[in-house]
């Protein structure tokens, strides 16, 4: 188990690295995170929902993702409530206090996640587990499902990950270990210091001091990297993305919605040399973009209201009239319609809001969630959405995609105005070529179309090489073999 001194210390990336390392070394690894809190999710081959990080880790391990890899997913809907997804299916919304109190639920979540781990461990070896946030939140110890309680159930060797880039690594590592019970402290077999910058020799003494303080070996000091691109889980990573347009390329603005979800939809475009992609809710940035993408959202009506309040809705419509392309994905597709209706108050108290009016469609929110993997004429993707979108009034159907089984998806007014429910559609080079086709003149100096699948495989291998170089794999295998 990779446990952390805090959030965003690099647990997910290290878990992905070791999934690839173990696969390279001839094992059959699988990722596992008992409980995930994220808006970024993914559809399994069975059409069920898990956290995107575990889907990425499964890809690094070379296996299909499964709900047993992330049996419990919490998708925040506000500061106090989350949608609870158990074994890939939503079971309702929970107030944070009631959820952590546990007694308010008829479901034994601890038993459910432990059973999922047990099933997974019967098929794969080793299981590469990931904790959540900090392991030193002692006020949550009795209700913990994902950190040390899960490590105890799995008899896991725990490696504590500390982020030296944010400072205070000695206190955070030592404190995280010191605050454990004697039983849990025995499970912590090593420390990895992550995101190191500068001359590694400068930390030699620090490494020895940590080992003396904690009585646990430092298994590696992993340098910070910028040239390896792995899909990220936490939306905090969006703060690192460029927020300005760039000359000489097709400038693509992804509108920063308050409840933006599945932002990994755009990872492929970020690596495409023909484009410059950035995230923004700045009106001026939107107006000078070539392509505007409205991404998925966990709260369509709230974000639609906010787009109108902050002026972005008007800017998007104006930019399109001036020649910009607009593409909506999932919730973004719903936003582009004539209206979004919620008569059953699935999302909240708002019954109806007018959409951007760029597509002649209407959306009716429903309590039943669609989750499935799909294929179409451009390639593959997946659906995770609530609500049904149909032509408005007398508008005729004009599907953007034709899915497997003869189903239609989305709506296309023109190659510069369209929407779809399919996440991952931008991972398919033919669709990206179609999206960029109106801007051929701008791409005269661009390179060949980008093969994102091959690129991802290359990145997993680069990540594995990077981590191997800076951790003691011999000692790690010794720790695993000692059990």
Task: Give an overview in words.
This protein is α/β, with parallel strands linked by helices and 483 residues long. 31% of the residues lie in helices and 27% in strands. It has 16 helices and 26 strands. A 6-stranded mixed β-sheet has the order 15-13-16-18-26-25. A 4-stranded parallel β-sheet has the order 1-10-11-12, with helices on both faces. It has a 4-stranded mixed β-sheet with strand order 3-6-7-8. Strand 23 and strand 24 form a beta hairpin. Helix 1 runs parallel beside helix 2 and helix 1 crosses helix 15. The longest helix has 19 residues. The radius of gyration is 23 Å and the shape is globular. The model has no long low-confidence stretch (mean pLDDT 90).
Strand count = 26
The side-by-side strand order for the widest beta sheet comes to 15-13-16-18-26-25
Q: Which secondary-structure class do the elements indicate?
A: alpha/beta
Largest sheet: 6 strands, mixed
Radius of gyration: 23 Å
Distance between the termini: 14 Å
Total count of helical runs of at least 4 residues: 16
């Amino acid at each position: 188990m990779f446990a952390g001194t805090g959030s965003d210390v690099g647990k997910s990336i290290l878990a992905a690295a070791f999934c690839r390392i173990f696969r390279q070394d001839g094992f059959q690894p699988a990722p596992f995170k008992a409980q995930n809190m994220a808006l970024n999710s993914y559809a399994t081959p069975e059409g069920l929902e898990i956290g995107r990080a575990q889907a990425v880790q499964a890809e690094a391990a070379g296996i299909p993702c499964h709900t047993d890899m992330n049996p419990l997913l919490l998708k925040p809907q506000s500061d106090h409530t989350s949608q609870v997804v158990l074994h890939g299916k939503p079971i309702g919304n929970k107030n944070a206090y009631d959820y952590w109190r546990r007694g308010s639920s008829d479901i034994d979540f601890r038993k459910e996640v432990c059973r999922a781990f047990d099933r997974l461990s019967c098929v794969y070896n080793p299981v590469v587990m990931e904790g959540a946030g900090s392991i030193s939140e002692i006020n949550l110890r009795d209700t913990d499902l994902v950190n040390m309680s899960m490590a105890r159930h799995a008899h896991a060797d725990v490696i504590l990950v500390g982020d030296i880039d944010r400072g205070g690594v000695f206190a955070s590592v030592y404190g995280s270990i010191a605050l454990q019970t004697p039983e849990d402290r025995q499970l912590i077999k090593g420390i990895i210091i992550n995101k190191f910058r500068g001359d590694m020799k400068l930390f030699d003494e620090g490494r020895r001091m940590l080992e003396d303080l904690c009585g646990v070996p430092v298994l590696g000091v992993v340098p910070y990297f910028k040239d390896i691109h792995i899909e990220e889980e936490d939306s905090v990573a969006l703060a690192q993305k460029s927020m300005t347009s760039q000359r000489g390329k097709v400038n693509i603005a992804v509108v920063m919605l308050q409840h933006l979800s599945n932002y990994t939809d755009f990872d492929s475009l970020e690596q495409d040399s023909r484009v410059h992609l950035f995230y923004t809710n700045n009106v001026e940035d939107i107006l000078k973009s070539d392509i505007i993408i409205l991404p998925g959202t966990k709260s369509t009506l709230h974000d639609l209201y906010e787009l109108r309040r902050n002026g972005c809705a008007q800017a998007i419509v104006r930019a399109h009239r001036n020649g910009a392309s607009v593409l909506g994905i999932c919730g973004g597709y719903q936003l582009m319609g004539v209206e979004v209706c919620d008569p059953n108050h699935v999302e909240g108290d708002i019954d109806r809001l007018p959409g951007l009016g760029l597509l002649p469609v209407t959306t009716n929110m429903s309590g039943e969630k669609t989750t499935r993997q799909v294929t179409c004429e451009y390639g593959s993707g997946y659906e995770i959405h609530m609500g049904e979108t149909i032509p408005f009034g007398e508008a005729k159907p004009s599907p953007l995609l034709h899915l497997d089984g003869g189903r239609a998806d989305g709506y296309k007014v023109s190659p510069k105005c369209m929407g779809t429910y399919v996440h991952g559609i931008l991972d398919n080079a033919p669709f990206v070529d179609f999206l960029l086709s109106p801007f051929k003149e701008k791409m005269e100096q661009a390179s060949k179309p980008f093969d994102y699948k091959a690129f991802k495989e290359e990145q997993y291998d680069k990540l594995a090489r990077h981590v191997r170089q800076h951790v003691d794999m011999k000692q790690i295998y010794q720790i695993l073999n000692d059990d």
